[in-house]
């Protein structure tokens, strides 16, 4: 038995010296992203509106009227035909409120906006306009060398530059 025991012990320790198996993954990633904003314009035409309110007011004669809108055309907004007013009962209190907004004409398609080199040179002449001037690349640049060295250079207005280095280590 004394002779078999060392052989058994030797077999048991041999398993301890077996190479360990481990999956090891190491990733290195470098990237740059450069962007230049585009020019954009959003215009909303507003229509013609007229409102009137009051008391103790009347039209001046049977041929007169309170102001009214006259029909527009395919390219022109409605216009205002002003009326003629008078007090209903002279010497009595009265109130009168009138409001008029001239609507926008219809621009031809493609008219009203010019963009040159990302800059909005002129805008549509509408009642509500939002304009974003485009970015100007200028000196915007991004490079990565074979050694992984990253260089980012800022550009002009409306530009973005992002550099990123990722080191990922996975052990299974």
What is the overall number of helices? 1
Q: Tell me about the biggest sheet?
A: 2 strands, antiparallel
Q: Whole-Å distance between the termini? A: 42 Å
The number of domains is 2
Low-confidence stretches: none
Mean pLDDT: 81
Quick synopsis:
With 172 residues, the protein is mainly beta. The chain contains one helix and 14 strands, in the order αββββββββββββββ.
Descriptive terms for the model:
single chain; 1 helix; 2 domains; 8% helix; 45% strand; elongated; two-stranded antiparallel ribbon; mainly beta; 172 residues
Question: Could you describe the 3D structure shown?
Answer:
The protein has 172 residues and is mostly beta strands. The chain has 2 domains: 20-37 and 135-171, no CATH class; 41-132, no CATH class. The chain is built from 1 helix and 14 strands, in the order αββββββββββββββ. It has one helix at residues 4-16; strands at residues 24-36, 40-44, 49-55, 57-59, 68-70, 79-81, 85-87, 95-101, 114-116, 119-122, 128-132, 141-144, 150-153, 159-171. The strands form 7 sheets. Strands 1-14 form a two-stranded antiparallel ribbon. β5 and β6 (79-81) form a beta hairpin. The protein is elongated. The protein starts with a helix and ends with a strand.
């Amino acid at each position: 038995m004394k002779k078999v025991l060392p052989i058994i012990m030797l077999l048991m320790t041999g398993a301890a010296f077996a190479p360990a198996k481990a999956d090891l993954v190491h990733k290195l990633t470098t990237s740059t992203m450069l962007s230049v904003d585009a020019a954009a314009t959003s215009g909303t035409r507003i229509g013609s509106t007229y409102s009137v309110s009051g008391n103790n007011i009347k039209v001046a004669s049977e041929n007169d009227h309170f102001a009214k809108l006259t029909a527009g055309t395919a390219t022109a907004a409605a216009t205002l035909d002003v009326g003629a007013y008078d007090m209903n009962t002279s010497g009595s209190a009265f109130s009168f409120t009138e409001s008029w907004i001239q609507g926008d004409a219809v621009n031809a398609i493609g008219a009203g906006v010019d963009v040159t080199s990302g800059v909005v040179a002129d805008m549509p002449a509408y009642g509500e306009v939002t304009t974003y001037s485009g970015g100007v690349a200028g000196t915007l640049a991004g490079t990565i060398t074979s050694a992984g060295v990253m260089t980012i250079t800022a550009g002009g207005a409306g530009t973005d530059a992002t550099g990123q280095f990722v080191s990922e280590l996975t052990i299974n």
